[in-house]
Predict the structure.
Amino acid sequence: MSLNNENQVVSEFNELNIFDRNSNSLKINHENCYDPDNYKFWCKECVPRCIIEGWTSGNDDVDNFIKDTIYNVSHNFEDPFFLEWVPFDRFENMKQIGEGGFAKVYSATWIDGKAVYYKQDDGSWIKKEPEPIEVALKRLNGSQNMSSDFLNELKTCWNFYIKSHAVCLKLYGITRDPKTKEFIMIMQFADEGNLRSILSSNFNNISWHDKIKYLCQSAIDLKNLHSMGFFHKDFHSGNILNLDNESYISDFGLSGPSNEQKSDNKIYGVLPYIAPEVLNGEPYTLCSDIYSFGVVMAELSSGKPSFHNRKHDTSLALDICNGLRPEFGKGTPEIYKKLAHRCMNANPNQRPAANELQGILGNWWGYKDNEKYGYKAKEVEAAFDEADKEIPNILTSYEKNSDAIYTSRAFTFKNLSKPINSSFISALYLNDEEDNKDCQDSQLIDLEVPSTSKLDGKYNLLYDDNDN
């Protein structure tokens, strides 16, 4: 080979960032890339090849997203945490456990379990021995072509996990059914089911202290989501999952940035939980999630899904816009009803923010005085202790209207009236709100049903009503 040709090969070789292992002058110093005390494990150049190579999902967008989580490995954990691509045949004992409007959910055994890597003294990375774990597999209907909606849910779920500092359900990775070609999210399995099923099967054994805990932990999750600038858009009791006596919000399929709106003029969700301004065609806002939170509060009080006895149709949407609100269970403390009705105020600007909900509910749960919100611990404790006495007297059996549908779907409404509060609710529960007169009518509704636990980190957040 001539000298000119040899120099050309060396030049091209160097441009590819491929260096002779024995060349000290060209080596990049990666000693500072590994700093576990500060949650740093590697950079893009020194990431272990065994993690980043040798797999593909068959979709460039999915591959790039997974690789981004590897390159930018999370800094919130003692060990490197990132998403994995997992072959479908690494799951067994799959059983369908749920179905929503846009997805099916299965329980399954992940044969290998979450990959855990350790760095050895010689600088190489070694994978921990596989340990099978139970997981949930969420199959998004029609995801064969990797729609933007599916990729959006993946990104939202992952970003929420990072933002929450792991105090939420884990997203482990992605797989794909080789027969249907649908993509599937691999998630932590919530073995206690959703809040709706818990209320249905065990309502009379749930104290008010536990109810407040469910709500406070959900408020923490909602606050974290809102602090990302995202709304949930499908917040209801079926999307509050429970694991180890702790509550976690889930299902971010409809979530998105608060500065982005769908342009198809359709409304998505479970009708009783959709805010009246959204039913009326107004853009979805963070305040719309708070309305849904108030409906969940009513459900925790009564033990029954809101408006279970009537069709979920245009007539119900119109009544909600005209001030109809869910019923509360007998003996529900007045301070609880007032907070719930603040959440369900027809005027979105008068609803509390998620961090305020967390602050109020956290102090109720811990029976702590709070001058900011005007609650005294002894009075709060006495009110909920008294309410506990009524729980055995609340009948939770009910007959559901066949057209009362509690899975998310699309709606199109036209010519609904401007949202208002009933004058009765306004006088009793919203009388100290400003500019409430713009949202009143004279409708009266019956507010009562006739007599007929998570990681330490989440507990530490129960009393924290800051946005940090």
About this structure: Residues 165 and 231 are 19 Å apart (CA to CA). Residues 1-27, 432-456 have pLDDT under 50 and may be disordered. Residues 208-227 form the longest helix (20 residues). DSSP finds 14 helices and 16 strands in the chain.
